[in-house]
Write a structure and sequence with these properties.
- This protein has a single domain, classed as Glutaredoxin (3-Layer(aba) Sandwich), CATH 3.40.30.
- It starts with a strand and ends with a helix.
- 41% of the residues lie in helices and 27% in strands.
- By secondary structure, it is α+β, with helices and mostly antiparallel strands.
- The radius of gyration is 11 Å and the shape is globular.
- The longest helix is centred in the first third of the chain and has 17 residues.
- It has a four-stranded mixed sheet.
Length: 78
């Protein structure tokens, strides 16, 4: 199971990244869990200074933007 973590305070871009990430994971047909990380100290512990960000299994893959569902499918599948 892949752990997909959305790092951000819950802004509109964070919500959009969550939606795109869910759609991408569902399209890939993988087992996944989405966790929203909103605590600023926890976000900074990932080394992230700009949100939204996406971490997959603890590794930060996307920072400061909302990729398309197609782009996210490639990131998640990699």
């Amino acid at each position: 199971m892949k752990k997909l973590q959305i790092l951000g305070a819950g802004c509109a871009k964070c919500q959009q990244l969550t939606l795109h990430t869910e759609k991408a994971a569902q399209a890939l047909g993988i087992d996944y869990e989405i966790e929203k990380v909103t605590d600023i100290d926890q976000i900074m512990s990932f080394g992230v200074m700009v949100t939204p960000a996406l971490a997959i299994d603890g590794a930060v893959k996307v920072v400061g933007k909302v990729p398309s569902v197609e782009q996210l499918k490639q990131v998640i599948a990699a």
